[in-house]
Batch of 3 targets.
Target 1
Amino acid sequence: MSAHEKIWWVVLVAGLLAVVGYGAYRSFPQEATSPLPEFQFVASSGQLVSIRDLHGRVTVVGFFFTCCQASCPKICQAMQELQRQLRDTDVRLVLISVDPETDRPERLHEVAKSLGADPRRWWFLTTTDTDSERLFAWIEEAFGPATRPKRLSWYYAAPRGWDIAHSNRLFLVDRRGRLHDSELVVRLEGEGSPWFEVDEEAVARLAQKARRLDSAGGIPVRWLPTLNVGLNATSLALLLAGFVAIKMRRVSWHRCFMLAAAAVSALFLLSYLYYHWQVGHTRYPGSGWDRTLYLVVLVSHIVLAAALAILVPLVLWFALRQRWDVHRRLARVTWPIWIYVCVSGIAVYVMLYVLSPQLFPH
């Protein structure tokens, strides 16, 4: 390899590291608190959703119940306005029912339709059981003691629709499931008034904060799994091309293909680490034999990928030093491992995002 080629590859890798590093710095949540505690919900589609399923996108969370005659219609109105203002972003909207006994998925589905909610961006959640006290305790733990809902009928005979008091705030959660900020978007019309109105300025402030947090990372995090599988497939193609080239005695072609494969794999590693730094562990939704298969493929993929982090630089080093005998012996071991890591990475993506669509309810 000539000196110019070496310089070109060093500049390319350094540039990729700089881009990913800058994106990581820009998206680091400076004001975030600790992650929200784990809890399991069921969506209006009937699919199970955990707090971890909210990771990967900036989320606005609010509370309501469908029978509410007080502030809930205005909270829904505020969410409709947020859906409009944030339509060109990846921000997700979530409304959690504080009346799980009444608000089952079928009922939430009808409410979502009536509000014109985009099911890809606006989720309606209830608990998997009807024990509201567990939900109330989780809300208090996640969002603070002042947000714990109260059943007013315990104190006086409140009519239906006025019997549950809950927070009129909307909460901003970052991609890692951490609470960032909140806005009181619904308030009383006036002193002594029983009626509520939307605080349009508070909604606009929340939309601005959500937009700023959503754009902080450059490339939307939810796109990274697709980017990563594309990088894996590109590495696989380059490895196969490099193998064919050396069999044809085209050494210069082989060198270019293998260096390109190394650069693409390095970019994949950076993107993969960045994604999981932002999102954390991605849970596989299945529980049967497919989960066992997924874990076997995933663990073997991770272990062998870690081995490649040592093997690939060694193979390249011996090639650059023109120690061809050692290079060939090591390459015979490294190449099939590299191929398997690429193929298994694609398989993990297919099992997680194609064959298990319940991971992201629609």
Target 2
Amino acid sequence: MDMVRVGFIGCGGIANWHLQHFEKMDDAKVVAVCDLVEERANKASERMDARPYLRYEDMLEKEELDAVYVCVEPSAHNGMEFMIIEKGCHLFVQKPMTLDMDYAIRVKEELAAKGLLSCVGFQCRYMETWPRLKAWLNMQDVAFFTGYRIGGMPGVWWWRQKEHSGGQIIEQTIHNYDLCRLVFGEPVSVEGMGRSGIVQGVENYDVDDCSAVTMRFESGVIGTMFTGCFTGFGGENSYQAFCRDAKAEFGFGSFKVRERNMTIEAKAANDYGQEIDDTFMDAIRTGDGSDILSPYEDACKTLKMTLAAQASIDAGGKLIELDSWQG
């Protein structure tokens, strides 16, 4: 395949973040873009010299595409993935892939049945520090960890409405939960509490202001993730892991590990956003998806983890065993 032909469904902020990566590629081209807002579709069309559409059904019917990026809000997944799969296109979906676990499972199964490649937008997995940190943690007796994703509220209208975004855990802190899986392994249970009343004067706002979710992992490690969208001061996006004879402090692209007689620090220098899109395009050209760090099948595990965490909060702190939870 000399040139990978790509279509985009959704031309908002995250789509434009991906489009800048395609501007640097010589062997992949965005040939068609679609958005319900005509101005956004036309702007992306002009930027990429691509054909604009207002309906993804028209784009998928008329265009010859090798891959499609789905970059819409969580509540807007209304069957587009199934049309993409039926057309035989490889699929990139921005996180979270949906708010409906059954929907995600159906997409996963149909991708497998068709033998198509997939990737979900967990680009933070591509920061080059993670393999080094994981290797160090694998040599330690990790007892527990704490994680934080504390900041302000994104400005898009749909984010502040739970029916559209799912809330901060599912829409935003899902990156942090995904990295918990990457570093500490698979979770077996979640138990969470949330609160509101801190955020004031925001119209049509009904998501949790903050939450604390405790997780237990197959390895025995326990951890608590704190998240909040209530502050413009003193934000935090980090983890601390406490071991028997050591401690690790890490974030998105950096870490500092301390043993009794040694301290190691590292910071990622790679463009992880470019890397996730380059990796997906390379996989399509070669037919080898082994370098994709976040295929749809794996991303379903992170989605389930966050949906269950929110369900626990909504149930007043109910302990949820992930193996038996159906969503």
Target 3
Amino acid sequence: MQSTAVISKFAWNKLDVWTEMLNHGLASDDDLYINQTTKESFLKQPDIDPENNCFIAEIEETPVGLLRVTNEATIRRAVANLFVNPEYRRFGIGRQLLQTAIDRARELNAQILHIQVEVNNDSGRFLLEQAGFAAVRRYWKLTKKNGQVYEDTPPLGYQLRFFNMGKDEEQLTELQNKSFTGSWGFSPNSVKQIWSKVRLTEWESDGILILENSNHKIIGYNWTHRPKKIDSMNGYIGMTGIDPELRGLGLGRYIVQSGINYLSSLKIPKVNLEVDASNMSARELYLSLGFELLEETVWYELNLNH
């Protein structure tokens, strides 16, 4: 069945609609529920530009779908995240939002558009393939029961500490870009972006672990997250980086174990993370620490130059 939706750009007076729709899509994971304040802080991050890059689909003034297009101008890439209310799927709304994403990516002069879907989302994958997208990468979402405590003595010549707000943003930005430049899909961050991310109100901000050398230079980090809820069941490991010149010394394993220890100290029963399935060293590290495959996702790519 086809039903034409009206797609309009985001406006701040629809923040409540946007937040409610997102939470509807997260109904299976109560930990990820958000409120308007945290959503507002997210949308006000540098380079989000919600008035131009976020869209709401409506049928007879009923919100039925959302789209956010992220512009990564440095690498000429756009990334689309879209959601359609399950009650309105198979109405052609996903196709409308997908075309809106393609049009917006072209307006942004992006060369490629990427969209991530779960591997078992047959309808989503079919929609993308029909639009000319090709599967280019697989990611694993891994999970681990928490409780094990690892050796917490830093390697000789290094020390572990927490991130210092207002002091470490520049060094963290430099290390993250150095660690991931050249990695698939990575767009270098600006200091302004990192400054904003560490201040998002959706997560507790004290979970960024820093590894520094004797000269107080940051050479590694493990960015953990935990929802601001006393009964949160899940902790998350976001990005982990080690200075490329110091890889192979076991520092990556140590900083990941330190992140797990930190979440364990908070009585968080499970730790989740996402890893590029093609990144063999990272993948095998996590598996050796007891992480197990929870689900698999596929990144699809559309070459906008064709």
